[in-house]
Design a protein that fits this description.
The protein is α+β, with helices and mostly antiparallel strands. It has helices spanning 12-22, 27-32, 37-51, 73-79, 83-100, and strands at 54-55, 61-62, 66-71, 110-115, 123-131, 136-140, 143-145, 171-176, 181-183, 187-192, 199-200, 211-215, 220-224, 231-233, 236-238, 240-242, 248-251, 254-261. The strands form four sheets. Strands 9-8-18-17-14-15 form a six-stranded antiparallel sheet, with no helix packed on it. Helix 1 (12-22) packs antiparallel against helix 5. It starts with 11 loop residues before the first helix and ends with a strand.
Length: 262
Amino acid sequence: MTSEPEEEPVSVLQRFEKRLEGLVEGAFAKVFKGVVHPVEILNAMQREAEAHKAILAGGRTLVPNRYVIDLSPYDHSRLAPYAAALAQELAQSQAEFIGEQAWTVYGDVIVEIERGDGLDTGMFRVTAEVYTGGDVAPVQQPGYDAPPQYAPYDQGGYPPQAPVSGGGRGTVRLVSGDGRTYPLQMGSTVIGRGDQANLRLPDVGISRRHARLDYDGAQVVLTDLGSTNGTMVNGQRVSAVALNPGDMIQLGTTTLTFRVDG
């Protein structure tokens, strides 16, 4: 009696590649032109998790749950239309990998794709952090080589920026359509509907970590964090943009007006 040979289990990387094939109606095939750059990123994320394991009480193994992928300015601008979809697939695949290893994370696995101004074309950097809902603990920022492969896209990156108010001394705030006011503090403010957001909005169209506002006292830069439904400013979808007084920000069904007083 002969038995059928057992099929080899499908790996996380193979499932990831399969999902990419059908993503955005094959757009990835054109963008990456046969180069498996997304798999290289996922490989790097897996190495980061493996390299920064910490043993908790009870023998559980804690690994980073937040991964920031910095791309060169050129590559970031070319990937911008697909950044949200790619970040979501990377997060899902990394969560599957961590689950297969029986490791522990705090909360959800988060992936953010950002612009790395110090990187040459074809380079990317992975930053892995343990994110607990407040402060984060960075663990490493190595660089990896990857060939350039993206198609042009002119909305990515930061446009020329002007101070939001004279000398940066005004009160900077967001005002919702129903009149609620959200003052902005210096530093970074994450907008979303999850526990990890600094500014939480009860809107099912908003991702848990949807967008980030960076305020340095002179200007405010809005960055989409790979959200599912995207971030709009004055009707235009953006990846990162410097805000001007009166700009209308739309996240899900929520509209916020950027105001500067003083």
